[in-house]
Amino acid sequence: MNQDRRRFQRIFFSADAEITGFFRLDAPYSRIAVAVITDLNAKGIGIRFHKDECPQLVSGDRLTILKTTEPRLAFMCGPEMKIRWVINHRSLEHMAMGCEFDGISPDFMRQIDELVKTWPSGKAETEKTE
Q1: What letter does residue 22 receive in the DSSP assignment?
Q2: pTM: predicted TM-score of the whole model, two decimal places
Q3: What is the 3-state secondary structure (H, E, C) of 42-111?
Q4: Cα–Cα distance measured from residue 124 to residue 42, given in angstroms and rounded to the nearest whole number
Q5: CB count in 10 Å sphere of residue 4
Q6: CB 97 within 8 A of CB 107
């Protein structure tokens, strides 16, 4: 096992919460798309786009959160993210993806860590990430 792995607390948002984000998609798409935010940790977020409302994004594409429907996530607006993985099976109505924050400050990471610790669901889980 890799001894250099870091551990981040993660929030999995309930499907009922329907926390939505408005994302600016960088070139070649250059448009705004809406996605459900499924989880969050200090390294990045998980999101889910409805296929009919979003282009076919791939690993390496970049996007930025412009706005969320959850006021406690407002501080996350602005930093660019890189898509690390995509699940886009033809039998599914949604594309799921994991995005990594790019160039974030220690203060930004601290805010996420604090949010994870105080999120009311109490369902934060520890996940190993690199």
Answers
A1: E
A2: 0.82
A3: CCEEEEEEEHHHCCCCCCCCEEEEEEECCHHHHHHCCCEEEEEEEECCCCCCEEEEEEEECCCCHHHHHH
A4: 12
A5: 6
A6: no
Give the chain's domains with CATH numbers.
6-122 (2.40.10.220)
Nearest C-alpha neighbor of 39 from the set 73, 2, 67, 79: 73
Nearest to 85 by CA among 100, 67, 68: 100
C-alpha to C-alpha distance for 112 and 37, rounded to whole angstroms: 14
Which residue matches tokens 């996007």?
Answer: 63
What does the pLDDT look like over 82-130, one tens digit per residue? 999 999 988 888 999 999 999 899 999 899 989 988 888 644 443 444 4
- The answer to whether the Cα torsion of 110, 111, 116, 120 is positive or negative is positive
Q: In this structure, are residues 83 and 58 in contact, taking their beta carbons and an 8 Å threshold?
A: yes
Which residues on adjacent β-strands are paired with residue 104? none
Q: Report DSSP letters for 29-44, one per residue.
A: T-EEEEEEEEEE-SSE
Burial 100-116 (b: 16+ CB within 10 A, else e): ebeebeeebeebbeebb
